[in-house]
Amino acid sequence: METLLLLSLPLLSVIITLCHSPLRALYRCLCEKVLKVLCGNVCVRRTHAYIFSECTHGQAESVLATFDLYSKKHASASIGPEKGVFLDEVLRRKAPLRVLELGMHCGYTSVRILRMLPTFGKLFTVEMDPLTAEKGEEIILVAGFKNSQFQVLPCSSAEAISSLASHLGEERLDLVVMDHDPEQYLPDFLALQRENLLSKHSVLILNRVVKAGAQAVMEYLSTKPHNYSVCQQVKDMLEIHCHMEREDS
Question: Record keywords: Nucleus included (predicted)?
Fold first, then answer.
């Protein structure tokens, strides 16, 4: 399918060149979207293949070390060891039982989180791209974790948040890690509030806080200093604490 798309793009270009100019802009937009998907899929497959073949199966630390080794030579969406150690420290200090990860990528952060959770804890990890979700889940299993310890939700963040109450029952989320599209950070944070999924003990981790979408969350939180506080930051990853049981949006 990917090869067919690549072969058809030049032909589509010729057709559109003969048409009205607005279609050329549409063509450029289409090309950008198609190439982004194809390049992303290639990256996911290459990362997965390397981790799968080079790590020691059943050992989470080996999986993480292999990820870090791969990232030294290739482009990678993983948060890396420095921010990973920061996340470890938060997990160790807060000892969460129910964690939501928005933006699974290839499973690096998922593995870091799961190795810090008790066996009766639960990670819900969300990845909208089906291929990435599939490959990421395989990496989690390769790291030695059981299906009872995590659940991959291959859907949009909005869909995942709206369905979480059915998974959690009366429980709330102890930790939320946002590492997906920064433009979705604020809408998803507000959705978590509306669904009453956060408690006064919940912790929010934002990655890539320099992005405009993440800054929108920071601006929102600055208007509610009694409800939320910024705890610490490493590089572009930020820890935020919630202080209220429930907030009316």
Answer: no
